[in-house]
């Protein structure tokens, strides 16, 4: 298998748990891990800090080109500041979804994502890992769960109850982001014909990781 093929591409909607599964699979195999959504989140945050509008394609693409971001020591840095938590807010998630619709921004981030692949192999998670960034991946997975279950997982992460106004808001934010990611013209969220479906609605993290490792052992 060539290094280019030593890639597992995991795509799916927000809050599906793909990040947790992907990073655990990477650790189990000794591969590097790419959280591609973090790059879109970093771009949205950087644009906000630099007072660029999220829909201003030229301005945001120029910022994405020179994004002063680093992934090190288990944290995510922007311009020398630890922004690991700041990029996880729902507002920045929406910003990420907005800047991700701009073709020039996607083009600006493409090589940067490919550069994560070194000799070890890579597990990448996002929306277009299998379709655009690593079309030659050895294994492509579409990881999803029902919107209700994803909202419950997000609520638990935030220490909120799985009912009530705050919960309804989480659910509608998730549905709005899914809709935007699916309907956009460039690199829309989709299950590719050559991707295996991993529905985690009734599956725990350990079982999901095991399933991916099992599939990978057979490619
Ligand atoms: O995965 P995460 O929720 O962190 O991604 C944030 C947003 O970035 C997504 O809603 C999506 O619009 C965008 N994204 C993308 N392509 C990727 C990863 C994320 O368009 N490969």
Automatic annotation (TrEMBL):
<feature type="binding site">
    <location>
        <begin position="12"/>
        <end position="20"/>
    </location>
    <ligand>
        <name>ATP</name>
    </ligand>
</feature>
<dbReference type="Pfam" id="PF02224">
    <property type="entry name" value="Cytidylate_kin"/>
</dbReference>
<keyword id="KW-0418">Kinase</keyword>
<keyword id="KW-0547">Nucleotide-binding</keyword>
<dbReference type="GO" id="GO:0016301">
    <property type="term" value="F:kinase activity"/>
</dbReference>
<comment type="similarity">
    <text>Belongs to the cytidylate kinase family. Type 1 subfamily.</text>
</comment>
<keyword id="KW-0808">Transferase</keyword>
<dbReference type="InterPro" id="IPR011994">
    <property type="entry name" value="Cytidylate_kinase_dom"/>
</dbReference>
<keyword id="KW-0067">ATP-binding</keyword>
<protein>
    <recommendedName>
        <fullName>Cytidylate kinase</fullName>
        <ecNumber>2.7.4.25</ecNumber>
    </recommendedName>
</protein>
<dbReference type="InterPro" id="IPR027417">
    <property type="entry name" value="P-loop_NTPase"/>
</dbReference>
<keyword id="KW-0963">Cytoplasm</keyword>
<feature type="domain" description="Cytidylate kinase">
    <location>
        <begin position="8"/>
        <end position="216"/>
    </location>
</feature>
<dbReference type="InterPro" id="IPR003136">
    <property type="entry name" value="Cytidylate_kin"/>
</dbReference>
